[in-house]
Design goal:
By secondary structure, this protein is of the alpha/beta class.
């Protein structure tokens, strides 16, 4: 397998000092090596990114921004943050970047703090149709302190845009409620987003336009999805999904005035000291994303998603909106088996070594902890080297597990095949012991 002497040394070091923690790290490393990761929001960061995140930059307080810190000793932290910001701007072709948000939700919280007052109205997709909890869930700060109004997908089965964004409905909702902020960008939407259309609606109703591209950032950065720039006033993202960096967030804009507001909203508005080890890892990841290989990777991510969706359709599954144009798909399990729930499917697949998450389908009658669907994504499997042929094999494994409905014999047979497949595509950055053969 792809051995990583640094990961080996780290594990040895931790084991000597703390066998309990080392055992957990070892077992998680083995789990990642020996299972197929289909969670659409996850990926396998490179060894360089992972090791950059495990460096002495974690020791430093660096509140503030380059050249204007509240602590001494920040010379190299300024350089690191400037490097990350410059690469982010180049990658997304925009003028300003804040690389300090600890996550996508933190980035969104800072945008809300910068642009809205408590009680202000904003518009976002119905959360049960694929939105994110930071886009107005009642128990989230966004839904508790602000007033979300939601636009739906097309629900008419006979419409060509069935289960896609209904831009007429977006306009109707926006003209009726006049939100201060219009959000686009989603957690479970398999189609291309038309940022230009959103811009026109935002202009018509007088809203600022915010794209949360957490899921599609890698596709955007490589030109495999249209860019939100120049259409959006602000763009937020995570850095660890298709972008394949460390766990974290990012705020981007072309507007200088807004950029100052976002900087203040991140620090001191919503965060204290930045995680400078993560900022270093972001810089390394953005450097990787600027290379031509990253574009080839994103093309394969899309091709693999299409291959998986196509093979599942051939096996009798319904994919919402009829397919995928990005890295993910939503499988409606009811058309295969009316009794089958997302919760059961997730559990049975995990037992077979195929990791994914239950997910509501548009207008799902079942509650979020049960659901009628599965969300599947290709970024992580593509990183480990799977191509379309392997994705077709994975589709057939999924089919067998779901047909077997938890039968132990068939689940074990698929589990063995998953291990064999994973052994052929070793993960980088893993300690040498974490192979299927061990
Ligand atoms: N939890 C992420 C996802 O799975 O899409 C969003 O934050």
């Amino acid at each position: 397998m792809a051995q990583d002497p640094i990961a080996d040394a780290v594990l040895k070091l931790i084991r000597e000092q703390d066998p309990d923690a080392a055992g957990m790290l070892e077992r998680e490393t083995e789990r990642q090596q020996n299972t197929i990761e289909l969670i659409a929001s996850e990926n396998h960061a490179s060894a360089a990114v992972m090791h950059a995140a495990g460096t002495c930059l974690t020791n430093k307080y660096a509140e503030g921004y380059p050249g204007a810190r509240y602590y001494g000793g920040c010379e190299f932290h300024d350089q690191v943050e400037d490097l990350a910001r410059d690469r982010a701007k180049k990658l997304f072709n925009c003028r300003f970047a804040n690389v300090q948000p600890h996550s996508g939700a933190q980035a969104n919280a800072a945008v809300f703090l910068a642009l809205l007052q408590p009680g202000d109205t904003f518009a976002s997709l119905e959360l049960s149709d694929g939105g994110h909890l930071s886009h107005g869930l009642k128990v989230n700060m966004s839904g508790k302190w602000f007033k979300p109004v939601h636009y739906p997908l097309h629900y008419d089965e006979n419409h060509a845009d069935f289960e896609r964004i209904d831009y007429d409905a977006v306009e109707k909702v926006c003209m009726e409620h006049k939100p201060k902020l219009l959000m686009c960008g989603y957690s479970a939407y398999p189609r291309v987003i038309d940022f230009e259309k959103f811009r026109k609606i935002a202009d018509k109703c007088g809203a600022l336009l915010h794209a949360d591209i957490a899921h599609i950032a890698g596709l955007v950065a490589s030109g495999e999805h249209p860019s939100p720039f120049p259409h959006c006033d602000v763009v937020t993202t995570t850095t660890h999904k298709t972008l394949r960096g460390p766990r974290g967030g990012l705020i981007l804009t072309d507007n200088e005035e807004l950029s100052k507001k976002f900087d203040r909203a991140v620090f001191p508005g919503t965060q204290g000291g930045p995680l400078m080890h993560i900022v270093l890892a972001k810089a390394v990841a953005f450097g990787e994303a600027l290379k031509p290989e990253f574009k080839a990777y994103q093309k394969q991510v899309k091709a693999n998603a299409r291959a998986l969706a196509g093979a599942l359709v051939d096996l009798g599954f319904r994919i919402t909106s009829g397919g995928t144009e990005n890295h993910l798909m939503l499988v409606d399990l009811r058309t295969r088996d009316a009794e089958l729930t997302g919760a059961d499917a997730e559990k049975w697949l995990e037992a077979a070594g195929i990791i994914c998450n239950k997910n509501g389908v548009p207008r799902d009658p079942r509650p979020p902890r049960v659901t009628s669907g599965l969300r599947l994504g290709s970024p992580a499997a593509t990183t480990r080297g799977f191509g379309e042929a392997e994705m077709k094999t994975v589709a057939s494994m999924i089919d067998r597990v779901l047909q077997a409905k938890g039968d132990e014999g068939e689940t074990a047979r698929v589990r063995d095949e998953v291990r064999e497949l994973c052994a052929r595509f070793p993960l980088h950055g893993a300690p040498a012991h974490a192979s299927a053969a061990s």
